[in-house]
């Protein structure tokens, strides 16, 4: 190896990893076990004199300005590195709009003059950390829940499922239940609703959920939450337990979170369905809610047991989302 090649290898620095989420952004370096910073995806807009979210844009030019301000905040306030000296690994969803991806590339190459950018999809990066060849990734984020199957480092695109069952759906239901508890429309901000969810709410079991739906009164302690500038509000035990039930409510299109997980499994090749059911990774901010994994396992076992029916014509098994070849 030539001397100058060895010097170049020594001087090469760690690349930065960027994950621009809807509510929170993760920013760090390759080779480290955790991000250097997890901050809200917002910045102080001097023109509007308020904190503005990156995803609040109407034109490509406005999105460009939002990304410039957000990356400036990340580079020069949180990690204090020169963007020209480090390559970038962008972790994104498989459903990221093309406009957002192209605008982010334009900001990185034109404005910050980075040396190189690699785009990596979120499901494949999550499966890479487990070291398993076949993994089902359930990402429950801010706006939507995405379920994708990763088979030997390749996402199965035809089985990709997405529904608006995430943190914002829980916030809407929690705000409605809090208004019912206090007999008035409180118009609480998103920050207060999120703080109430994190500090007081949990996901109940399937058995208790059925009892609440049947009208039974169960024992669950209510709490008082102090709100600045007004009297403390009451958070009943029912509200604490049922705030996240919107993730599990079924409709005519079978669009609950357990339903889309089973639909994703059944749309994959038959020889990988069992490994997918055995290796399910639940990720995202909403995945940290207490009781989510237990409730999800209960719902999946129930649907897997009752999701098999018999064809009335040829008496063969019909799967959960597929019909028999005889259309019976």
Label this structure with key terms:
16 strands, 328 residues, single chain, 5-stranded mixed sheet
Task: Give the overall form.
Answer: globular
The run of helices and strands is HEEEEEHEHEHEEEEHHHEEHHHEHEE
SS elements, strand count: 16
Helix-residue proportion: 25-40%
Uncertain regions: pLDDT < 50 for 5+ in a row? Answer: 308-328
Order of adjacent strands in the largest pleated sheet:
3-2-1-6-7
Structural class: alpha+beta
Rg computed from alpha carbons, rounded to a whole number of angstroms? 23 Å
Task: Work out the helix count.
Answer: 11
**Distance N terminus to C terminus?**
69 Å
In terms of DSSP E residues, the strand content is: 15-25%
* Largest sheet descriptor: 5 strands, mixed
Q: What is the typical, i.e. mean, pLDDT?
A: 85
Describe this entry's structure for a reader.
This protein has helices at residues 3-11, 60-79, 98-111, 122-130, 167-182, 190-200, 206-213, 237-242, 257-266, 273-278, 292-306, and strands at 16-20, 24-29, 37-40, 42-45, 50-53, 88-92, 117-121, 134-140, 145-151, 154-155, 161-163, 223-225, 233-235, 280-283, 309-310, 317-318. The chain is globular and about 65 Å long. Helix 2 crosses helix 3 and helix 9 packs across helix 11 (292-306). The strands form 5 sheets. It has a 5-stranded mixed β-sheet. The chain has 328 residues and is of the alpha+beta class. The termini are far apart. The protein is built from 11 helices and 16 strands.
